[in-house]
Design goal:
mainly alpha, two-stranded antiparallel sheet, 12 helices, 2 strands
Length: 262
């Protein structure tokens, strides 16, 4: 199925009614093959093309996985949190501008600022409560020093579920390769922003990440890279190291869970 064609509600209905695997293909791949073959766009031609593409290159397809209610709730609670934080930031900028220009502040806006801060705290508490229901969050908080509850919850919100990714390299591309289709800017931001996951590792000298960061940066500087670029490359390398360890820890937990049931 072309990934852009059906709504998620239709895909969910198909997943519920059939036991078949649902494989999704990006529409650009169909269009590229249609142009290569010189055929017109039609449902009949596209069905044949999609069938042929699967046999030629199955790696182009990804399996559709129905999201759990917890994953959906996390996703939209995270969006609501980001909206509140953006609103608070704009309001604080407005209050600063008023004070700079007129020398006083507005009580109504100050009260609104207090209200929004309280909403952010409530939203964050609920987000952490939701995140605690998924194993990825519990694995993060139990195995990675330096990652607090808020940061762990944010990271789980942006990756949704590690089961989405067939390989660790796919998780890395999703989180870090901004030029790649399907890369998530929010995931990259949680990893690399100020006070993000990598920043916490470096700031608190969490091992093995801190030593790895130092060695990698020194090596890049010795190769002649500018200081800023060497810093960015080192932080990105730390992010990859973290993702690989997270991937390994999750699958160790999964194997242990399956073995306990068998």
């Amino acid at each position: 199925i072309e990934s852009s064609a059906p709504k998620k509600s239709i895909l969910n209905e198909l997943a519920d009614k059939t036991n078949a695997r649902l494989l999704l293909l990006h529409g650009n791949e169909t269009a590229k093959k249609r142009e290569e073959l010189g055929v017109e766009k039609s449902d009949e031609n596209d069905v044949k093309i999609i069938f042929d593409l699967y046999h030629e290159n199955p790696q182009l397809f990804r399996e559709y996985r129905k999201k759990t209610k917890a994953e959906v709730a996390l996703k939209f609670q995270f969006k609501y949190l980001k909206l509140l934080e953006k609103t608070l930031n704009r309001l604080e900028n407005m209050l600063r501008a008023i004070k700079d220009e007129y020398g006083y502040t507005l009580d109504e806006l100050e009260r609104e600022k207090t209200t929004i801060k309280a909403k952010i705290d409530d939203c964050l508490d609920y987000l952490i409560w939701l995140a605690n229901k998924v194993p990825e969050y519990r694995i993060l908080t139990a195995n990675f020093t330096g990652i607090g509850k808020k940061l762990a919850a944010e990271f789980i919100c942006v990756i949704e579920s590690i089961e989405r990714f067939k390989k660790c390299s796919a998780l890395e591309r999703y989180c870090l390769d901004i030029e790649t289709k399907g890369c998530n800017k929010d995931a990259k931001n949680v990893l690399l922003k100020k006070q993000g996951i990598v920043d916490q590792f470096i700031r608190h000298k969490v091992e093995p990440y801190y030593s790895y960061y130092q060695r990698y940066k020194e090596r890049r500087l010795a190769e002649g890279l500018p200081k800023g670029r060497a810093e960015r490359n080192a932080r990105r390398a730390v992010a990859k190291k973290f993702l690989r360890r997270f991937w390994r820890k999750y699958h160790e937990w999964k194997r242990a869970t399956l073995n306990s049931f068998s």
